[in-house]
Amino acid sequence: MSFSPLITSLLDTDLYKFTMLQVVLHHFPGAHGEYEFRCRNVPERPLSALRTAVEAQLDALCTLRFTQEELAYLRNLRFIKSDFVDYLELFHLQRRFIEVSTTGDMLTIRIKGPMVQAMFFEIFVLAIVNELYFQPCDTEERRAEGQRRLDGKIARLAAFCASEEAARCRFPLLIADFGTRRRFSRNWQRHAVEQVHAALPTVFRGTSNVYLAWQLGMTPIGTMAHEFLQAFQALGVRLRDFQKAALETWVQEYRGDLGIALTDVVGMAAFLADFDLYFAKLFDGLRHDSGDPYAWGEQAIRHYQALRIDPASKMLTFSDGLDVERILALYRHFDPHIQTSFGIGTNLTNDMGVSPLQIVLKLTHCNGQPVAKLSDSPGKTMCTDATFLAYLRQVFGIAG
């Protein structure tokens, strides 16, 4: 059986991998990161059976280089700097920084190396594991079921957009694809994104996948991820000040571009304590990724109001476990008060009638020190060092 690489372009990843990598290269190029793979649910088939295939795909991934056409596309993004593209011209992933093994029925994947290398593996690894896992399910019948579900999403959104209710809404409905990391396959993601964008071009405006944005003439969407803020827990600033240091570094790098701040590394309350008038004016809005989205959004609105900022001038971006009905419910709820946008992931790119994997690849150490994410959702907290986790909770006054 001939080998077929699942990743054929280094652009086939989320935009925030590039935006975060640029900051790392410019501000802490010597930082060292350690990442671990985790599956949050119980797969129907053992992931350990994928090990050999994953290893072969990683071997192929590490032979890829950016083409001149890809580099030219990146140069045309106004927030990507010329020296960073010059760096990418020389870039390729180093196989020695990633190791794959098995523990019982589970895959164990660890990445250890300079962050300018280690952080770029994440989306590729998750997409590879997903596609290998679902290959046995990739049948005509399964794709027909996926198409039926996709058609239903398009019809539901189209019906809402044509309704009198939508005409009365204050702000436009904005949806983007955030589904690369948990896609059924590369081809299915492209198919789904292409179909929704063609049917609803004023609603479905972007994708986090840089390659698809380039190929389909869409807007690439993304700013920062948890790992960016987590790294500052180990970059020499006082732990209590790590969020402020991360946000300030982002502002200095992008100076008004990419202005959506992620809020849930140590929880929304602790984030807002640091998100003062200075940051609230400099950032365009906030991204929700854990906890009750309604309570989170109401907290954000009250925070802006307390700072005497009109919430209508800001945006809330929702990206946690969305489907079409959740999107419409959140849109209706917040539209009178604040702009919203929505990043839909698994339910767009892997809604095929089979249970999706809940897999992540998270930063656990930076510069030899543990880092942690204190999520607002049970089960999403990520840390391999209980002592550091307890200390982080104590510093931010968060109950265990």
UniProtKB/TrEMBL annotation:
A Pfam family assignment:
NAPRTase_N
Q: Which GO terms describe its biological process?
A: NAD+ biosynthetic process via the salvage pathway
EC id: 6.3.4.21
Keyword Transferase in record: yes
Q: Which InterPro entries match?
A: N/Namide_PRibTrfase (IPR041525), NAPRTase_N (IPR040727), Nic_PRibTrfase (IPR006406), Nic_PRibTrfase-Fam (IPR007229), Nicotinate_pribotase-like_C (IPR036068)
Give the GO molecular function terms.
Answer: glycosyltransferase activity; nicotinate phosphoribosyltransferase activity
Instruction: Please give the SUPFAM superfamilies that the UniProt record associates with this protein.
Output: Nicotinate/Quinolinate PRTase C-terminal domain-like (SSF51690), Nicotinate/Quinolinate PRTase N-terminal domain-like (SSF54675)
Highest taxon in the source lineage = Bacteria
What family does the Swiss-Prot or TrEMBL record give for this protein? Belongs to the NAPRTase family.
Q: Which residues does the record list as Phosphohistidine (modified residue)?
A: 226
Task: Identify this protein by name.
Answer: Nicotinate phosphoribosyltransferase
- Catalysed transformations (reactions): 5-phospho-alpha-D-ribose 1-diphosphate + nicotinate + ATP + H2O = nicotinate beta-D-ribonucleotide + ADP + phosphate + diphosphate
Q: What does this protein do?
A: Catalyzes the synthesis of beta-nicotinate D-ribonucleotide from nicotinate and 5-phospho-D-ribose 1-phosphate at the expense of ATP.
According to the entry, every stretch annotated as the Nicotinate phosphoribosyltransferase N-terminal domain falls at 11-130
List residues of the Nicotinate/nicotinamide phosphoribosyltransferase domain.
175-397
Q: Provide the record's note on post-translational modification.
A: Transiently phosphorylated on a His residue during the reaction cycle. Phosphorylation strongly increases the affinity for substrates and increases the rate of nicotinate D-ribonucleotide production. Dephosphorylation regenerates the low-affinity form of the enzyme, leading to product release.
- What species is given as this protein's source? Gulbenkiania indica
Q: Name the keywords, alphabetized.
A: Glycosyltransferase, Ligase, Phosphoprotein, Pyridine nucleotide biosynthesis, Transferase
